[in-house]
Amino acid sequence: MKLIVGVMEARNIPAMDINGFSDPYVKLQLGKQRYKTKVVKKTLNPSWGEEFSFKVEDLNEELLISVLDEDKYFNDDFVGHLKISISQVFDAHNKSLGTAWYALHPRNKKMKNKDCGEILLNIYFSLNNSFLDLNCNGVGDHASTLKKHEDMATNDLSRPFSGSSNSSSASIQDDNVSSNSKEEKSSAQKSLAGRITQMFNRNFDTAPTTSARGTDLTEIPEISSADVVDNKFDDQSSSFEEAVEALCSRDQGSEVPSNLPGGVLLDQLYVIAPKELNSLLFSPDSAFPRSVSELQGSTDPQFGPWKFENGGESLKRIYSYIRAPTKLIKAVKATEEHTYIKADGKTFAVLAVVSTPDVIYGGTFKTEVLYCITPGPELPSGEQSSHLVISWRTNFLQSTMMKSMIENGTRQGLKESFEHFTTLLEQTIKLVDPKDIGLNKEQLLGSLQAEPQSDWKLAVQYLANFTMASTVLMSLYVIVHICLSGPSTIQGLEFIGLDLPDSIGELIVCAVLVLQGERVLQLISRFMHARVQKGNHGVKAQGDGWLLTVALIEGSNLAAVDSSGFCDPYVVFTCNGKTRTSSIKYQKSSPQWNEIFEFDAMKEPPSVLDVEVFDFDGPFDEPTSLGRVEVNFVRSNISDLADVWVPLQGKLAQACQSKLHLRIFVENTRGGNVVTEYLKKMEKEVGKKINVRSPQTNSTFQKLFGLPPEEFLINDFTCHLKRRMPLQGRLFLSPRIIGFHANLFGHRTKFFFLWEDIEDIQVFPPTLASMGSPVIVVTLRPGRGLDARHGAKTQDEEGRLKFHYQSFVSFNVAHRTIMALWKARALSPEQKVQIVEEESESKGLQSEESGSFLVLEDVSMSEVYSCVLPIPIGSVMALFSGGELEYKAMKRGGGLNYSCTPWESEKPDVYERQVHYRFDKRVSGYRGEVTSTQQKSPLPDKNGWLIEEVMTLHGVPLGDYFNLHLRYQIEDLHSRAKGCQVRVFFGIAWLKSTKHEKRVANNIISNLEDRLKVIFGVVEKEYTAR
């Protein structure tokens, strides 16, 4: 959702300069987004008339507006400021504060000017603009002139649109509004993203919208046709189709919203026109929503009419029903608000927000689900196809310790709910056959033909300019002058055959003629050399493997660098070190190419395609870059690249909003044995067997990092990511990426970068800080992998990010695998020769990664130990203080070489530390090692402490298959003078499946109970002995 802020004018600004005036301008900041207006000189009542657009992701943020006085030689003077809560705008009627005057406040009470003036602002949420900015830059419209808006609250018209099937449901809603409107209204006005949804919920059909208002039909006012006679859509019998057509007619070319960050629930192509699919999913006359509701077990579905709001700019409806009961939650009432955020006849985007206030913690969160329908590829049969993508996210209205549990319950509920949705939709509509899409590529490319132009026509077009015309006229003038003039007398230093200028005027004329002639020769030379450069259009690819085909259709708004106001652009494509160059288009700012380029077949799928547009400036001059863009195949769905406009990056390109129209296809010509062949190749490099992962495992891996279907998992390792504090998680390796994922105490850390981004990989020897483990340091190239910078330990002056990985269960295997994949993907043949291959650790290495990978989720905890100790809580907490008692108790409990780091504050009242020790032989015959992360925080009632621990076992069988989770709850007993209660909870997070899960769990629990008795027994004995 976008927040629009109009900065219109100000009045009574205090004079900050000695001339009695100010040079005011306005700064606006929301989170990390910052904008600035123009400076208005010498005035106390400035007028700006500018509008800015902010991307909103958190309703708890505040918009900071500051007015400053520009000073040329010193720091700008502060005039006044004000803060506006985003939730205030969102909760306002029509999500608009209207146009209003706001008083500016001084920075602090000590400022001399208490009266800082007033500023006129127009602040509102826009639902018609793209809901999520595809470029993620949030660029504001600095140059746009702000129109005078009247207060939206006084001009809002609500116009209902419903078919005949809606009359009964609407009347039912009207009968029930009196009993529950207050309750639902109060619970609905606190947030942007919805309060969804049914933790641990099984059934969920449509989903939420950004509007946090209106959970009841009575909150959407109806206006009689007499009030809006002039509007042809005010008839109550108007159909849903007419309402959508009216909305399409108002579309101003806004961008298609990008997927929500929670994940993609459905991504499929269907043989149906986009308009028909939209009607099937959202028309009041459609039976599909009711069938889905029945399949999910929901009862009493009531669909409200579609209504226009915000002066006809948005189309909304309310849908309520009774959720089916689950094992943990009774049947509850759910209310959904559906809002069209884009509709242009071909593309439809509907945002749904579900409100379930009766669910546990239902007032702390909402979930949004985005339905996006776009045109699919044209099929050989001539039928139309549609691409349906459904994505979701959860927004929390307030902080809660149950955040992770709520997210997991929501995720599970959505997953199960949309399984019903997908099954029913596939039974209703035919899926697109992948073979038909392959044929479509040939049809799309076959229709492209470059426009043939004769050299004479191009020469006239290129050379017909002022320079050539003026040169021709001057040449004719000089020739006529020579013919009419007689021979001049020899004077000065002249001699026969040498005629020098006789005056300053003649010298200037000669210089102008020479310079003009030189410019003409340069133009002719550039034209001749450009005609020689025909590009690589039509060159066929060689070999068998991954084939990349790029069709360059056209460009739009390319920057003009010539004095003529045009440019001579050509495009260079680079992939895996190979380049393809287009032809040059003369004097064009929006050129048409229609050229096809094929890259020779590659052994591995391509990761990145670099596209750069240059302006041709002669064979010996450095070409000027008009903009560049990087097409990332790992972050993009290949089907989405079949026909795409890509915006160019760079100062010139962004200033002109330059774009290229491309059609990109990647296909594998080697058949279905690509994965097996690649793994066999890697086995030779690594020196160990690598098993092919199951389709379910690869699908989970792809969803975890948002990867395309062709990406597959090679291996994964448990390790620690070293930042300020070590973070325990898993490292994932695939042919194109290296990724890390951790879920520690409900806080998720996830990132990945490309193998091509890596500049160097080093191994540092073990140290005390690394818990006795070697450290793998991965250094990226300057400016690369910026999306993963939150996982980097350091960044040098040149912008290189460095990632530190340590505490691998099998360091040698992990290191060899990482080096093999890096060498295969990122290094040139010369670099590969320079790197000496490591010798294998042993010839008979067994496969350790035979299990299937499971996503790390929150663990089910059960109580394994409980006791009441007749000692103060402070004495018990000494067990976690790093003192003598802790070392003695752990040694008695079977922990040798015990070491721990000091507690460090992560945030208020939350502390974290690392622990490392080795098992005694009587505890484990394998004498394995333990590395763990402990987090300490006070109980909610401040009556004790909560210590959570995530533990990894090294050097024991199947130690890489699981993590151990412990929770120590130590609570003071007020009923006793000296006493506290200790409760210990335990759970296992299985990282990979194995048939020995039950046996391993029973063995660990039995051992853990004995150790806890010994440890807390030592604490009690030491206190008594004092």
UniProtKB/TrEMBL annotation:
> How does this protein lie in the membrane?
Single-pass membrane protein
Which stretches are annotated as coiled coil? Answer: none
Look up the record and report any one GO term of the cellular component aspect: membrane
Superkingdom per UniProt: Eukaryota
Q: Which Gene3D superfamilies match?
A: C2 domain (2.60.40.150), Pleckstrin-homology domain (PH domain)/Phosphotyrosine-binding domain (PTB) (2.30.29.30)
Q: Does the keyword Ion transport apply?
A: no
Per the record's keyword annotation, is Oxidoreductase included, yes or no? Answer: no
Q: What are the Low complexity biased-composition ranges? A: 158-171
What keywords tag this UniProt record? Answer: Membrane, Transmembrane, Transmembrane helix
- Cite the Pfam families for this sequence: C2 (PF00168), GRAM (PF02893), VASt (PF16016)
Annotated region (Disordered) at 155-191
State the SMART domains in the record.
Answer: C2, GRAM
Which positions fall inside the C2 domain? 1-102, 528-646
Q: Where in the cell does this protein reside?
A: Membrane
This protein is called C2 and GRAM domain-containing protein
Origin organism is Hibiscus trionum
